[in-house]
Structures are given as C-alpha cells and as structure tokens.
Amino acid sequence: MPMFRTQDGVSLHFEESGDGAPVLLLHGLGSSGSDWEGVTPRLSAHHRVLVPDARGHGRSDKPAGAYGVALFARDIAALCDGLGLSRVHVVGLSMGGMMGFQLAVDRPDLVRSLVVINSGPDMVPRTLRQRLTFTTRLLALRVLGPRGLAKLLAPKLFPKPEQEELRRKARESLGANEPDVYLRATQGVLGWSVLARLKEVSCPVLVLHSERDYTPQRQKQAYVDLLAQARLQVLADSGHAAPVDQPGQVAEAVEGFLWELEPQGFDAAATSH
Predict the structure, then answer these.
(1) Could you state, in order of their start, the residue ranges of all structural domains in the chain?
(2) How far, in Å, CA of 257 to CA of 113, rounded?
(3) Where are the coiled-coil regions (predicted)?
(4) Which of 90, 133, 141, 144 is the most core-located residue (most Cβ within 10 A)?
C-alpha cells in the first residue's frame, strides 16, 4: 500500500498504475480514491495515473487541527514533488476540482492541464439560497452524523431505481467517515475561494458539467469565460458523482483532452504495449 509522508508527519495513501505522462485524480469531500475505480483502468493504458486520498479521507491519516482546500492541495503538491513529478495533468471531482484550482494558482510550474468535474473556483455563499444550503449541510452533519447524512445524500447522487448498488456504496463510504474529521473537512471547504486569482491559471482547462449536477451549467460557464484557455463540456445522463455514474464518459472526455495536448504520449504508449 503506497504511502507518502508529508513534512508535518501525515501519511497520505495513494494508488499508482500505468506508464506515461502523469495524471492525478483527486476525489470529492468525504470520499476517497475509490471515486475513480471505473476511470483509472482506461486512463492508465496511456498514462501514469496517481490516485491519492486527501488527508482526513480514505486510508490517509486523519490528524487533529483545521482542514482546508489550500492544505489539501499543499499535500498533493508535496506528494508530486516527492515522487519527482515536474508536470502533471490534474483531474478533480467536486472538492478535488477545488484542489485542482488551488494547485493551478499556487503551483503553475506543476500543473500541465486541469480537468474540473462538477466544481468551481469558489465556495463562498453569495445568495440566500446558497447560505441556506451551506448551513443545512453543516447542521445535518452535526445532528445526523456521517451515516445519517449519507442516507440523505445517496438518493440525490444516484436517483435512478437501477442505481441501488451505487446508493449502497455511497451510504457505506460516506457513512464510514469519522464525525469530527468529516465536519472539519466540510468546514474547511465552505468559504474557500480562488475566484480573484483566476487570471493566474495559465494552463488549459476542461470543465465537465453533469446534466443533473447541483449547480447549473450557467454558473460554470461564468467562470469558464474568465479563464484564458478553457472550455465546458456536458456529460449526458449524469449526476454530481460523474466518475461513478458515468465512468466511460468521463474517461473519454479526459482522454480526448489529453490527446489534444500531448498526442505523442498516446503514440508512445501504443508502441510500448
């Protein structure tokens, strides 16, 4: 089980597979690298794929103290530096997308490209509805705990009758979070923003929007328009957890984007197999 130790002594778990240009897959809040199980096999055919668990998540350490997107991103940058990776393609779902944006502004030398799935550069509540949503989420977590919250979230993530197995897995994985750790991670995400620094994002960006995501497409298009090299692509028949409910579509979109940037990487991988 590969582990990386940060400067402050936190052990981060990560999985690694494939050869080629490095691709980093970053998971969502309260989840783990298992978000990417359906995507990794396809991407690792042409790339070196790394799937870490953020601190406080999955099989990584869960230390005391405040959590936050900037800290999660620093950990991931340290992991990349420790592995000797100089340029990585970053793919992030939800909170993972926030980490991707943070990396893109803090470490432009490290981020070759960025794919953001159902996420954005800002989690500051700007409307009454957003404030109510954030307050309700924290209240539900405090009152119901991770297991109770998981029971509420699973049907929203996977609403179709035939998605019962996905709902079961979501209840299991989200419900397994330690209450205090999950609460601190959630508090660390709410209020985060790099919106004012978007002009610092110099790499190409692909924004993937699920048809049934919580946030509307226009909200994502608004920040796409602020980026120098970005475009938005829609994932059909998909909810917030797109790599889980539509892994094929996600893998295809990411592969297509990476091929545009580095077609030689696919050619090299093909000749080596």
Answers:
(1) 3-124+193-272
(2) 9
(3) none
(4) 90
User: Do residues 174 and 240 lie in contact, with contact meaning Cβ atoms separated by under 8 Å?
Assistant: no
User: Coil, helix or strand for 169?
Assistant: helix
Q: Which residue has the tokens 């002594």?
A: 9
Q: Output the CA angle 189-190-192, nearest 5 degrees.
A: 70
Q: Are 220 and 232 in contact (CB under 8 A)?
A: yes
The ranges of the chain with pLDDT < 50 are 269-273
**Strand pairing category for 48-52 and 22-26:** parallel
d(CA 98, CA 116) in angstroms, rounded, equals 8
Q: Which two tokens stand for residue 73?
A: 């991103």
> Residue 133 CA to chain centroid, in angstroms?
20
Class of domain 3-124+193-272: alpha beta
Give, for 261, the enclosing helix (H) or strand (E).
helix 247-261
Tens-digit pLDDT profile for residues 36-92: 999 999 999 999 999 999 999 999 999 999 999 999 999 999 999 999 999 999 999
At residue 263, the pLDDT reads 84
Contact 17, 47 (CB under 8 A): no
Distances (CA, A) of 29 to 84, 112, 259: 27, 24, 29
Q: Give the torsion through C-alpha atoms of 214, 215, 220, 222, to 10 deg.
A: 170
Contact 63, 11 (CB under 8 A): no
| pTM of model > 0.85 | yes
| 149: enclosing H helix or E strand | helix 128-157
Question: Are 94 and 238 in contact, with CB atoms under 8 Å apart?
Answer: no
| Cα gap 103→98, rounded to integer Å | 9
